[in-house]
Amino acid sequence: MDSRVKQDHSVQDDAELWRQLSLDEEEFAWAWLSLQCQQISGVVAGLLLASDVAQDDALTPRALWPHSGQDVTSLTEVIEQAQHSNGGVLLELRSGQYGLAYPLYAQEGNAHERLIAVVGVELHAQSEAQLQHAMRQLQWGMAWLEGGYFRQRYTMQGQTLDGLRIGQAVLAATLAETELDAACMAFCGELAAQLGCDRVSIGVLEHDHVRVQALSHSVEPGRKMNLVRCIADAMEESVDQGEVLVIPPLAEEQMEQASVVLAQQKLSREASNGSVMTLPLQQGELCLGAVTLERPADMPFTADELALCRNLSTLAAGVLRDKQLNQQTLWQRMAGRWHQFLVSLLGPGHLRRKLALAGVILLTLFVSLVHTELRVAADAVLRGEVQRAIVAPFAGYLEASGIRPGDRVRQGAEFARLDDHELRLERVKWASQREQYQRQYEEAMASRNRAQ
């Protein structure tokens, strides 16, 4: 069963129930269902399922009648059929006992109709006329439920518009200033005026400590140092936990808040037990500082104001960060970026970045320390460092060459052999001519013919 179902209601008169129709969404659902079940004779149990006005989520139980522990399992089938129909559904559960359910559709502007609620009742009926009266009464009551839905819807939209107006005024005042100090003063002053705060303070995170940058209202000289120290402690408490801290706690958070609020309580006592709310200034994962709001004790902060201040602090963080960077020198920006990188690398989180750096380091060590053979397949030309030309003493043709480029050679090795076929022919020619001249010489000597 949804935790938002109204619990532990006693029997109330009609006047009290009609008064509760003007209250919040939870009280309205219980009062409407109680009036319907009391005005329809023979009703044993009733169940109202509705969607959240702000979130347009799925249907959840919002009210049970006559009490929160009522068994309504018998209404499951009739309510499921009503969710898929455009009109009322009537089923006989057992002899003389019936289940009756009606869906409620709503349309805003040009949007399609959307199922916003289903009501189901279990009743005893003795005649068909009694059933018709119950169906007619339940159908008429759906108009009240629809009116309450749109009233709450318009109230929520009005609150949203008020929040947008406040946010626009605060951001416009902050953006109008060019210097960081002036922008912080404008932010604090405008936010204090819009929310009726006694004082709004803003602090900047420097070297793991928060320094109060601006105050919206002046402080008496005798109390200034103590108050500024209390405000800085409250800001550091919020920054360290990364949470919004509120004193006194919101009603819906009193049983759930497990944060440490000692510094907030000390600041509240310093401000005569006033209301205190401190929000961290976050830009993504970077924390820039914190904002502290103080109001009188009779003006506690509400959930809507908390949501508004969350949005404003997020937007203001980006604006103030830009103004802070514009005032820094190039070296200060580089040092800040390097510090952010080291924090993200050595601090918690960022697992992927750490794994990537570890992988790069391991790869560098492997390449530097491990030696291995690398074989690359490619065409290459081997050229001698000292080149010598071997020229044949006469023209001719090569007969054989036993050495190729790149081969190792030793002294006296045969590089090439020339073709000597023509030389042998010429040698034979000259040898035969010599023999001829030799015979002629011998014949001349034999005939003693010296002239020949």
Describe the structure.
The chain has four domains: 14-159, GAF domain (Beta-Lactamase, 2-Layer Sandwich); 176-327, Beta-Lactamase (2-Layer Sandwich); 334-363, no CATH class; 390-404 and 414-452. Mean pLDDT is 80; it is low at 1-12. The protein has helices at residues 14-20, 25-39, 76-83, 128-175, 180-195, 221-241, 262-270, 303-326, 330-346, 351-369, 421-446; strands at 43-50, 60-65, 89-94, 97-106, 114-124, 199-206, 209-215, 245-247, 275-283, 286-295, 398-401, 416-418. The strands form three sheets. The protein has a five-stranded antiparallel sheet with strand order 2-1-5-4-3, sandwiched between helices. The N and C termini lie far apart (151 Å). The chain is α+β, with helices and mostly antiparallel strands. The chain is built from eleven helices and twelve strands. It is elongated.
What sequence of helices (H) and strands (E) makes up the elements? Answer: HHEEHEEEHHEEHEHEEHHHEEH
The percent range for strand residues is 15-25%
The helix tally amounts to 11
CATH superfamily of the largest domain: GAF domain
Please describe the biggest sheet, giving its number of strands, its sense, and whether it closes into a barrel.
Answer: 5 strands, antiparallel
**Strand arrangement in the largest pleated sheet:** 2-1-5-4-3
Number of domains: 4
CATH-derived topology of the largest domain? Beta-Lactamase
> What low-confidence regions span 5 or more consecutive residues with pLDDT below 50?
1-12
Rg is 50 Å
Which architecture of the largest domain would the CATH scheme give at its second level? 2-Layer Sandwich
Protein structure class: alpha+beta
CATH class of the largest domain: Alpha Beta
Helix content: 40-55%
* Basic shape: elongated
* Count of distinct strands: 12
Distance between the termini: 151 Å
Kindly report the average pLDDT value: 80
